[in-house]
UniProtKB/TrEMBL annotation:
Family: Belongs to the glycosyl hydrolase 2 family.
InterPro entries xrefs: Bact_Beta-galactosidase, Beta-gal/glucu_dom_sf, Gal_mutarotase_sf_dom, Galactose-bd-like_sf, GH, GH-type_carb-bd, Glyco_hydro_2, Glyco_hydro_2_cat
Catalytic activity line of the entry: Hydrolysis of terminal non-reducing beta-D-galactose residues in beta-D-galactosides
Record key words, sorted: Calcium, Glycosidase, Hydrolase
EC number: 3.2.1.23
Protein name: Beta-galactosidase
Ranges where the Glycoside hydrolase family 2 catalytic domain occurs: 300-521
PANTHER family in the record: BETA-GALACTOSIDASE
Domain Glycoside hydrolase family 2 immunoglobulin-like beta-sandwich: 204-297
Assembly and interaction partners: Monomer.
Cofactor: Ca(2+)
EC primary class: hydrolase
Length: 956
């Protein structure tokens, strides 16, 4: 992603350019006392009052949490629930000491010590003197003027006493009783800010979409009349306006007003930014300057209608994000922030909620640069700050973040953690008067015309959308384990997309909050069911929902599971961008041939390809894309289409089969075959033998009873086909020949109608079967038995690489994939994805690699699901919806998955919408055919392991 790479370099330049001593002393100078982030730390002296390594002085990295440095105890915020009413949080104190030099030339300047984040209370002393009142609250930038406490030209002593538990009970209620890891320590950087006696403390900007520009420059130390100049500079470095104002002695604020013609507007799709350069002059001499990036945009809540940006209604494709890294907790760095924004953009998201506290400044800078709508949230997890401390913390949050164009809402706490006295405080400091919302979990708590109620299902969402308020759930479809996330999302997203008052929402949550426990051999702990809530693992390992969300949220929407019979290169397209015409986007088409891979064993499947630009389709409009395919395109196996945005970033990739499964399925090998099929009765079995392969069918049931070949006296695939739903009983089994083919046929009573086995001289075994089911069924199809622990891995032609659920079919593409056997339990160690066990969609053939050798299954009929073994879905009374009998199943219908917060999270999923209901079967006869090969083919007269295709464009 070229744009992301350039943005990151620019961000690094700006950040580290800011936090080093500038040669121009008219700008703020910064001297770090700590390191800059979790990868670049400085050792300070440290003492801890309790737990590990307590009672003695040592060295600790700063910034960091002291638990991650081997000190103290661990607590999760909900430990009071886990351990009962007698539980007490560890009220540890940590004492930090650090010496630092102060340049003698700084005497007469104003020097602040700045803390970006300390958990939870911080008492600061400089050379034994108190720097100021104890700061309470973990996630906020605070500072002290220490100019009169420093020894210039000498070493100075900094001492910080950090208390995990706050002296203010409301701070503990708001922060440390939360459903997340609560740690201790100085976890964000500490530095000195050096400014002249007269300086610009900060600027507050309100830049609207019509070009109107207001700015307040907040001044300190104005001891005489001074001039303030402001320049507005565009992205090319061109000054588009210059303004001046006079500041008189004692003034603390000067204001600027102007209007810029035709500004380039900021949106998540076009994150255009400007720069305000503000200069302070005394007697004609420049004494201070500061620069601030901003964007022109207008945010409106049009009650009973929607959320508007720059006059256009927008809908949030969002996610909740904790600031997190497993080894270092909430102490992170700009690279992690960048990767998280890129991950959200990869999923075609346009919004993020900073749950449940303000993030690092670098994260907001990157949201500004790459384009995400941000909800910046005051901490308050179900309990609110008291008014005195909350007022201070709102001020600290807003003053730090007020000029970020990405922030479109302030959130005054979470799920009842709203102190209504604080609602008006945001506007005291935010010149642009962004709307304030309440992220709540109970109906009827709408605020400012927006209902943010959490975890409504599909049908209750319909009712809320039919009511009077705008509906924007700030949490929904809880993604613990393999539930929620994209499961059920397609239905709920379509409700919001099509509803007048639907504003989209924010999935819970981005990352599994797994913490490396330094007290437990560095295991990664997700605190049971409390913290594995992410769409990705702790180190951002992609779960199945990631690509599904990517497809569901794609701003270029293409429907159609298959190409129509009269396909002529025209594809219907819907533009789901809010601001972007599709003629700014490009595409690439590819014709794929899987047969060439089958023959060669490796190599690219792309036979021919081409590129182009989408036609002009306005936002929210529909149209057609015409692909200029070669005349012989229908001779190939599949058509792939990849869409790219205006910066060349991939949006989505679709693959459609051109040929039917009947032509793509494998049912013969290119090998010389001699001999015939031997058929005989032996005890209770009918044995079919050809090409060294022996298949035994039970005379009474028609089921596969035993297998053997020249290399394995017994193959363990057997006991099928049995119905996974319904009843069946064989009433007659007969065997006969049809030419050179041996046939065993079973007629059945019940829901299974017949089973027919056919073997030819090559050893390929064909199984035909038919059944009919009525009513609501969790699944439909047949199963066989095979020991899971015998399986090394699988390779298949079909949808992949991830498993699917009935209500999460999106995000898989047709191709050749492979996966080794793993026991991944989604949301738990070792976070190895894709999971091996589960349901796989639209399978054409599958190669099973086992300790008994390889065997092959091939499906010439369409829309075949294959289930592999028993697997974990979602923590609860039952760890998954009911599973089919047996181990390997060939299915026509599979079940949906629920969420952590469903009433019966695995068995009652219908509330999530139509795709989350059970399968409604009509009693129609379903006829299927499967080919098996249980041997090793001969090539040029030698026995060789047959190689299925190794790669496709998107494999491995």
């Amino acid at each position: 992603m070229l744009i992301a790479h350039k943005t990151f370099l620019l961000f690094i330049f700006m950040t580290f350019g800011l936090y080093t001593a500038f040669s121009q002393e008219v700008e703020k100078r910064v001297q770090y006392l700590s390191g800059t982030d979790n990868e670049h730390t400085v050792k300070w002296d440290f003492w801890c009052s309790g737990g590990r390594k307590s009672g003695k002085w040592g060295k600790i990295a700063v910034p960091a949490h002291w638990e991650q440095q081997g000190y103290g105890h661990y607590n999760y915020g909900r430990d009071y629930v886990t351990y009962g009413k007698n539980f007490r949080f560890h009220d540890e104190k940590g004492v930090y000491r650090h010496t630092f030099p102060v340049n003698e030339q700084w005497k007469g300047e104003k020097i602040f010590i700045v803390f970006e984040g300390v958990m939870t209370d911080a008492e600061v002393k400089i050379n034994g003197q108190s720097a100021g009142p104890i700061h309470q609250g973990a996630f906020y930038r605070f500072r002290y003027d220490i100019s009169d406490k420093l020894r210039y030209g000498k070493e100075n002593q900094l001492e910080v006493t950090v208390s995990k538990m706050s002296g203010d009970p409301s701070v503990n209620n708001a922060e440390r009783l939360a459903d997340y890891w609560i740690l201790g320590g100085i976890f964000r950087p500490v530095y000195l800010e050096i400014v002249p006696p007269s300086f610009i403390d900060y600027v507050a900007i309100d830049a609207k979409a019509d070009g109107s520009f207001r700015m307040q420059a907040h001044l300190e130390g104005i001891s005489a009349q001074m001039k303030v100049k402001a320049s507005i500079i565009d992205q090319r470095g061109k000054t588009v306006d210059m303004l001046e104002a006079l500041a008189r002695e004692g003034d603390s604020v000067v204001s600027f007003n102007t209007k810029v013609s035709n500004p380039a507007l900021w949106t998540a799709e076009s994150p255009n930014r400007y720069r305000a350069r503000t200069e302070l002059y005394k007697n004609g001499k420049l004494v201070y300057l500061t620069q601030q990036q901003f964007g022109f945009r207008t945010i409106e809540i049009r009650k009973q209608n929607g959320i508007y940006l720059n006059g256009t209604k927008i809908k949030m494709k969002g996610v909740n994000r904790h600031v997190w890294w497993p080894e270092t907790g909430r102490s992170v760095n700009a690279r992690i922030d960048l990767e998280d924004v890129k991950l959200m953009k990869y999923m075609n998201m346009n919004a993020v909620r900073c749950s449940h506290y303000p993030p690092d400044q670098s994260f907001l800078d990157i949201c500004d640069s790459l384009g995400l709508y941000v909800i910046d949230e005051l901490a308050g997890w179900q309990k609110a700050y008291a008014t005195p401390v909350g007022t201070k913390l709102v001020k600290e949050m807003v003053l730090r973040d007020l000029n970020h164009p990405s922030i479109i809402f302030w959130s005054n706490g979470n799920e009842g953690g709203h102190n209504f006295d604080l609602d008006t405080i945001y506007g005291h400091y935010d010149l642009s008067k962004r709307p304030v919302i309440h992220a709540h979990h109970r109906p009827g708590n709408d605020f400012n015309g927006i209902d943010c109620n959490h975890y409504e299902d599909y049908y209750s969402t319909q009712k809320i959308l039919a009511d009077t308020n705008i509906y924007m759930p700030t949490e929904f479809l809880h993604a613990q384990d393999d539930g929620g996330g994209a499961a059920g999302l397609a239905d709920i997203w379509e409700l919001h997309w099509k509803a007048k008052r639907g504003a989209g929402g924010f999935l819970w949550a981005l990352v599994d909050e797994g913490l490396v426990r330094t007290d437990e051999q560095n295991m990664i702990d997700v605190n049971g069911v409390n913290a594995p809530d992410g769409l990705v693992g702790p180190h951002r390992e992609h779960e199945g929902s990631v690509n599904a969300i990517r497809e569901i949220y794609a701003p270029i929407k293409i429907d159609g599971k298959e190409l129509p019979p009269d396909f002529d290169g025209r594809i219907s397209v819907e533009n789901r961008y809010h601001f972007t015409n599709l003629n700014q986007c490009t595409f690439k088409w590819e014709l794929l041939n899987f047969d060439k891979l089958l023959q060669n064993g490796e190599g690219s499947t792309t036979v021919s390809s081409g590129k182009g630009r989408f036609p002009a389709i306005a936002p929210l409009a529909t149209g057609h894309l015409s692909i200029d395919l070669p005349a012989n395109w229908s001779n190939e196996d599949a058509l792939a289409l990849t869409a790219f945005d205006s910066q060349g970033n991939e949006i989505c990739r679709w693959v459609w089969k051109i040929k039917p499964n009947e032509q793509l399925a494998v049912h013969q090998f290119d090998e010389p075959i001699d001999g015939t099929v031997n058929m005989q009765e032996k005890d209770s079995l009918i044995q079919l033998t050809a090409n060294g392969i022996t298949v035994s069918i039970h005379k009474n049931t028609g089921l596969l009873a035993h297998l053997a070949n020249a290399y394995s006296k017994a193959l363990s695939f057997k006991d099928g086909p049995v119905l996974v739903s319904g009843q069946a009983k064989a009433v007659s089994v007969k065997h006969y020949r049809e030419g050179h083919i041996a046939v065993v046929e079973a007629s059945c009573n019940g829901d299974l109608k017949y089973i027919k086995w056919k073997m030819d001289k090559s050893g390929w075994l064909e199984m035909d079967y038919a059944y009919a089911l009525s009513g609501d069924q969790p699944f439909a199809g047949i199963s066989f038995s095979y020991p899971e622990n015998f399986v090394l891995g699988v390779k298949w032609l079909g949808k992949g690489p991830y498993r699917v659920w009935k209500n999460r079919l999106q995000g898989t593409t047709y191709g050749v994939w492979k996966n080794r056997n793993n026991n991944t339990q989604t949301g738990s160690y070792p976070w190895r994805y894709p999971e091996f066990k589960g349901y796989y969609a639209d399978v054409t053939w599958m190669e099973m690699n086992t300790v008994e050798g390889k065997f092959y299954m091939s499906f010439p009929t369409e829309d075949q699901y294959v289930r592999l073994f028993d697997f974990y879905g979602l923590t609860g009374a039952k760890p998954h919806p009911d599973l089919p009998v047996g181990d390997i199943s060939f299915l026509d219908a599979i079940p949906p998955i629920g969420t952590k917060l469903a009433l019966n999270m695995t068995t009652d999923t219908k509330g999530l919408g139509p795709q989350s209901e059970l399968n409604h079967l009509s009693g129609k006869l379903i006829e299927r055919k499967v080919y098996f090969y249980f041997g090793t083919p001969k090539v040029n007269g030698e026995n060789k392991q047959f190689e299925m295709p190794k790669v496709n464009v998107l494999t491995d």
